[in-house]
Amino acid sequence: MSGKMLQIPAGAGENLNVYHSTPDSGGRHPAIVLIHEIWGLEKQIKSVADRLSEHGYAVFAPHLYSRKEFEVLTAENIEKAMKPLFSLPENKRSDEASIMNLYNNLPENEKTIVMKVVSQIFMNREKMEQNMMSDLSILVDYAGKLDYIDRKKIASMGFCMGGGLSFQLAATGKVPSAVVFYGANPKPVESVANISGSVLGLYAGNDPRTNSGLPALVENMVKYGKDFELKVYRGCSHAFFNDLRPTYNKEAAADSWDRVLRFLDKNIKR
Q1: Catalytic: 160?
Q2: What pLDDT does 269 receive?
Q3: Residue 207 a catalytic site member
Q4: Could you report how far apart the first and last alpha carbons of the chain are, in Å?
Q5: Annotation says 243 is catalytic
Q6: CA gap 268, 270 in Å, rounded
Q7: Which of 20, 36, 63, 238 is catalytic?
Q8: CA atoms in the 13 A half-sphere facing the CB of 270
Q9: pTM greater than the 0.85 cutoff
Q10: CA 10 to CA 176: how far, in whole Å?
């Protein structure tokens, strides 16, 4: 296994920074586009990429904040913004007046940075997601042209924000199969009709915001006859797989990892 950073042209003079981890063995490999949480391309995501490559997958983990317009979105700045924001009720976290009131007591220089982060992540979320989906599409096309990648065997896998993007990739037909860790439903949820392969959905029991979409998701997966494996980990919180976060749950992480490997082996490795 070997890992390195790549720069992939993303148009308009921009580059997409990607951590790429490949198996030591030669030949052609199935590939995984691994999509990070809201924190960006942290070492935890890189470690997951390396673990997957040890099992024979070529992994592409993009930093979806590579574009210049997202340069304020560092892990440190996001942490500063998110910590106080979660003191608000969920229905107020995209309300500009509530957010401004929350941050009014911050020092002016810190307030400026925090408001830029909140603007990108919450107030302009739709535009940000469109840009990220564009970059993910570019990355899938790039991976598929490499001579050591089996173009017919590319899946996506993501966590939280990245879980939703992973699901969206499958629902737009860009990849056949997807692994979704506590991610939002595709938009619209009826777009699951476009999924050509299989989906593995892994969710936390104590995650009402994400789980509120599960009834509609299951209804549409059944309606369109999709191959969908769903597991909810009772007693666990959002981000239970991330061992850098206080919500980490060792048992759920281990069980979900086993399920991921079985799913990938069945759907893109054979």
Answers
A1: yes
A2: 80
A3: yes
A4: 20
A5: no
A6: 6
A7: 238
A8: 7
A9: yes
A10: 23
Q: Which of 160, 236, 258, 265 is catalytic?
A: 160
**What was the pLDDT predicted at 23?**
94
The amino acid at 234 = R
Count of domains observed in the chain: 2
Q: Which domain holds residue 161?
A: 2-68+127-269
For residues 118 and 195, state if they share a domain: no
Residues in the chain: 270
**202 and 89, same structural domain?**
no
Specify whether 171 is located in the same domain as 262.
yes
Question: Tell me, what's the pLDDT at 94?
Answer: 64
Compute the distance between CA of residue 136 and CA of residue 67 in angstroms, rounded to an integer. 13
Say yes or no: 109 and 146 in one domain.
no
Question: What's the CATH code of the domain at 61?
Answer: 3.40.50.1820
Same domain, 131 and 117: no
Say whether both 12 and 59 belong to one domain: yes
Count other Cβ atoms within 10 Å, centred on residue 161. 23
Location of structure tokens 């206080």: 246
The torsion angles phi and psi of 136, rounded to 5 degrees, stand at: -65, -40
Whether 16 and 99 share a structural domain: no
> Both 37 and 133 in a single domain?
yes
Residues 172-181 as b or e (16 or more Cβ within 10 Å = b): eebbbbbbbb
Looking at 207, 236, 255, 258, which residue is catalytic? 207
Q: Residue 185 gets which letter from DSSP?
A: P
pLDDT along the chain (270 residues), means of 10: 90 94 92 97 97 97 96 92 75 72 80 87 88 97 96 96 98 97 98 98 95 97 98 96 95 98 92
